[in-house]
Fold this sequence. Notes:
Layout: H1 4-12, E1 14-25, E2 29-32, E3 39-45, E4 47-52, E5 58-61, E6 65-68, E7 74-77, E8 85-87, E9 99-102, E10 110-119, H2 125-130, E11 135-137, H3 141-155, H4 161-178, H5 189-193, H6 196-207, H7 215-221, H8 226-237, H9 241-259, H10 264-270, H11 276-287, H12 291-300
Parallel strand pairs: 1-9, 2-8
Antiparallel strand pairs: 1-10, 2-7, 3-6, 3-10, 4-5, 4-7, 6-11
Amino acid sequence: MSDPLSQVVALLQPRAMFANVVSGRGRWAVRYAEYGRPSFCIMLDGRCLLAVDGHPPFAIEAGDFILLPATPAFTLASDDAPAPVLRDPEALPSDGSEVRYGEPGGTPDMRSLGGAFVFDRTDPALLVSLLPAVVHVRDATRLTQLVAMVAEETTQPRAGREAALSRLAELLLIEAMRATTAGTAPPGLLRGLGDERLAIALTLMHAHIERPWTVAQLASAAALSRSSFYERFTRTVGIAPMEYLLAWRMRIAGQLLRQGELRAAGIAERVGYASASAFSAAFRRHAGLAPGAYVRAIGSDGS
């Protein structure tokens, strides 16, 4: 049966952008401007303080993993830090070289690996909608191993580098999303997957998107009454079951339109519409554009 998390990651099509060793010694503080794209960090040794705009500051220590899906402005600092030095995230090296804070020489008090990734041909708002603004995973052994492999691929280019980085970025996202299904995610798919009853219904919807599902059928599969299922789904996922199904159908339809391999009739059948005209009307209502206009629009902006 199709796995919703795997479907989301396949839709995002992530690829690692870069990864750098970041170290610090003594008293230091840096302030980064808003980046807007997803970034990650794993602490290897020591600790530092992270303050993301709009969120209370907290300490990150060895083994911690941080993911910022939209990377607002933030400050990194040592304990007893001086005034921060302003840094431009766009000016960071992309060749895997080390970034140093504080005293330039000597053994660092803190070492981490940090980087960013981008998504091919998709709406990055999908990731932002799934995850909290700050993902903080403690004792992230598997994530530590994955980020170390990203750093190795970045600093020691070998044959197959792009493919390897793409797969590693997918695994990073999966591990980060798995860590947020237990209640820390905002209302949405990930929180729904953390509910064992709703996970059954969500998996069915994703596995058989073309079926004419009803709330009663999904409630029965989840072993809940219709009213209990509807209320629980809406509260946990953030929208009603049929609204969620429609939104996911339209995301899949948008992906198929971007790929350009199927005509409207084929896409309609794939996402559960009896005719191309019914699909086109639903897509226009949802996306604000007819399928043909949508394809022309994404072609004109280089997506």
